[in-house]
Prior knowledge:
This protein has 7 helices and 5 strands; from the N terminus they run αβαβαβαβαβαα. The protein has helices spanning 3-6, 23-33, 48-57, 74-81, 99-107, 116-119, 123-137; strands at 14-19, 39-45, 62-65, 89-94, 112-115. A 5-stranded parallel β-sheet has the order 2-1-3-4-5, sandwiched between helices.
Amino acid sequence: MTEQSKEHPHTAPLRVLLVEDSIVxxxxxxxxxxxxxxxxxIDTAVSESAAVEVVRSRPVDAMIxxxxxxxxxxxxxxxxLAKLPHRAVAIVLTNYALPQYRREAMAxxxxxxxxxxxxxxxxxxxxxxxxxxxxxxxx
Length: 139
């Protein structure tokens, strides 16, 4: 048994997947997230199929998800993962914060929908909120 598997699931770090096709933004997000206690970036994906593969192959607690990807879309990721028994908290971070996209994302289970151009700074507090809610949920 590894040290990590001995941890209680609600005291282990919040496992975050970055689904973003911009390498520059991936780096910026990693830098931001490394300063948030209880949050760990476990992987990145630049396409719809890569994101779905990561979530199906390993535990993910939260996804930071762009809607436009090199191949596929964030909506495709959400649809593909909708039937999984454990759903990661989806946080959309997009330049396409149109009302119809927000409605569609929320209908697919997205809890947080942020505009990259004017709400990027809210991401840290959203992740703290998600991590805190997970801890307080208990076993």
